[in-house]
Amino acid sequence: MKFEHSDKVNDLRKRVSAFMDEYIYPNEATLYEQCDQGERWKVLPLLEDIKAKAKSADLWNLFLPESEHGAGLTNTEYAPLCEIMGRSRWAPEAFNCSAPDTGNMEVLARYGTAEQKQEWLEPLLAGEIRSAFAMTEPAVASSDATNIECRIEADGDDYVINGTKWWTSGIGDPRCKILITMGKTDPSAHKYQQQSMVLVARDTPGVTVKRMLTVFGADDAPHGHGEVEFKDVRVPRSNILLGEGRGFEIAQGRLGPGRIHHCMRAIGVAERALEDMCRRALQRTAFGRRLADMGVTKHHIALSRMEIDQARLLTLRAAYMMDTVGNKAARSEIAQIKVAVPNMAGRVVDRAIQVHGAAGVSGDFGLAAAYAGLRTLRIADGPDEVHTDQIGRLELKKYL
């Protein structure tokens, strides 16, 4: 198992890094200012301009594996690029590689009909619209997807959808035009064949955003996470993805790549936090000496360096397994990084906050937002406990 990248991937790494240096990092403060001025849920003109530059530079849709629409990269090849993008909140969207659009595009590319691809996948690939994924529900423990209660019932040529979803990421963006929605079409079927996924246009009557949710007090505008009510929502039966009862199958296919992307980006977050920690430690003095000269600071830096490198290797191994034996065979490896990487990155950011002191919990350095995002990640793609249970079961199975 070697992680020596091809000339093509090394070239892309240099180009993505150079693009970040030229367009992302120098404009981060301005993007935050644009985000905070006036209406919160809006398109940011500067980010749109950066996206156009990335598209012109052919640094676009890099995430799509096994598709003519992407860069033709494997998960292992995409990993270092995704890590670089994870260093900035704005970078994934700048390259049209941000969630939940990446997962939704993979679903449409893999399972969509020709008509569905033309109507929704093509504008998503072009960056003309954005999307949302409606799965989690407030009334049930959605870490067990068989609990989902939203009903999708056939009525003539239509499906009628009734239910409430929340943590529907991206619903606050004015460019959100399509939701992939999961619900029960047949409650009497086998528990893994009760669920289906349908495409719901954002402007369909009966789709109502009840409220935008906050994460540790932040609303994550202009992207955001909403509680969405579906009340007698009618969509054509042709909007079904893959077929009735295939929702669980699609979810598993979608969440594998999505989880690994999150982990790759989290490593980028941790790398940047470590850099910030080192720079701060070299610049600040307390009690007559630099923070960098204090043993506890060097200890925190050393732990962070080791933990980041360990997590990266574990993530690359999972990516390699996905590429070579498939997502199902790589279930344990995917679950391992889902637990290990966000926990690691959270510890690194926590240490960086400590070195920054009071400034670390402010909005000035991005560490507080990074910490909130990483803590949320330990729930967003399934709780740690679900993944550790799966890892344990798969490990025990070797000895039966």
Outline the structure in words:
The protein is an alpha+beta fold and 400 residues long. The protein folds into 3 domains: 106 residues, Butyryl-Coa Dehydrogenase, subunit A, domain 1 (Orthogonal Bundle), CATH 1.10.540; 112 residues, Beta Barrel (Butyryl-CoA Dehydrogenase, subunit A, domain 2), CATH 2.40.110; 150 residues, Butyryl-CoA Dehydrogenase, subunit A, domain 3 (Up-down Bundle). It has a 4-stranded antiparallel β-sheet with strand order 2-3-7-6, with no helix packed on it. It has a 3-stranded mixed β-sheet with strand order 1-4-5. Strand 8 and strand 9 form a beta hairpin. Helix 8 packs antiparallel against helix 9. It is globular, with a radius of gyration of 21 Å. The mean pLDDT is 94.
- For the biggest β-sheet, the strand order reads 2-3-7-6
The number of helical runs is 12
Kindly report the name of the CATH homologous superfamily of the largest domain.
Butyryl-CoA Dehydrogenase, subunit A, domain 3
Biggest sheet overview: 4 strands, antiparallel
How far apart the termini lie comes to 27 Å
The total tally of domains equals 3
What is the CATH C level class of the largest domain, in words?
Mainly Alpha
Provide the helix percentage: 40-55%
Helices and strands: which structural class? alpha+beta
Shape: globular
Number of extended strands: 9
Mean pLDDT value: 94
Low-pLDDT sequence parts: none
CA-based gyration radius: 21 Å
CATH topology of the largest domain: Butyryl-CoA Dehydrogenase, subunit A, domain 3
User: What's the SSE pattern?
Assistant: HHHHHHHEEEEEEEHEEHHHH
CATH architecture of the largest domain: Up-down Bundle
